[in-house]
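Meet my pick.
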Amino acid sequence: MDQEESRMKSWKTIVLSVAAVAALAAAYTAVWFSSKPVSDSDGVSLFIYPGDTGARIAERVDSLHLFPSTLGFKLLCKATGLDKHLKVGRYDLTSENSRWHIYRTLRDGKSASVKITIPEGLTLERITQILAESTDVDLSEFSQLVIDSQFIHSQGIEAKSLEGYLFPQTYMIPWGSPPDYAVRTLTDHLMNFIEDSLKTRMREIGFNLHELVTFASLIETEARDGEERSRISSVYHNRLRKGMLLQCDPTVIYALGGLDRPLLHKDLEIDSPYNTYKYSGLPPGPICSPGAASITAALYPEETDYLYFVADGNGRHIFSETLKQHNIARSKIKLESD
């Protein structure tokens, strides 16, 4: 009996000792996790790049003093499975963040997002530049992607490039996102905007998606005053209906690769399918990315008999039904500007 009591006491001692150690470990862990390792008042950013190994991330974590050692972070990853959930991104951390907050941020993949604004009327080249600069991805990756036929067709788009299909809007894109994620986000917003009601209208006026975006891009480049969009739309619809050349100056500028000077009469002689002074109908594709207002105007033109318009020099246009009226308007504007 004495031996049994002695054995029980020994077990109790061991259990109490283990419990005490566990309690101390738990207390230490709680204090350790609740401590704030980031001392820089401005905070630090932890970058996780595509293809990063756990060891490389651990070294980066160590260099920022987020955890006491490379080994400590590796052990934490293995113990919690964190290494299986680390996502590419930029993680902004401040001096107010505890290690527990840092751990949860990494575990949940709560990386920083980049605010990217795509204004209406930009060309594909300019938009890819904005995306590359904003996401810190090489421009060549975006440039190749937006002309990749397989990728383009996977978006339900029948075109040679994504010119016109990157929808103008302000986006929040996770930092470090691959190019296809950012581009898909923009094309998806276009497709979502052209919802069922707009698709029905598109079919009613005999447009397919490519023709709609192309037509809307012409309106976008001409309509400096938003109130004129549906009226400009009516001019192009009327000219198409009558089989007239569209004679849209911005299409010629696009064919020339852009201009930093006024369009000259000799420029209208360029032999390009985008020269709507030479070739009838719509150009082969969009000349910029049109916004929601221009797409809507393309589908719902104002009811007019206008066939011509000329810029009045103040951001608006003078519209005419006949060539005679148009020439009078042009002469008046030229006289006023001299």
In short: The chain has a mean pLDDT of 84.
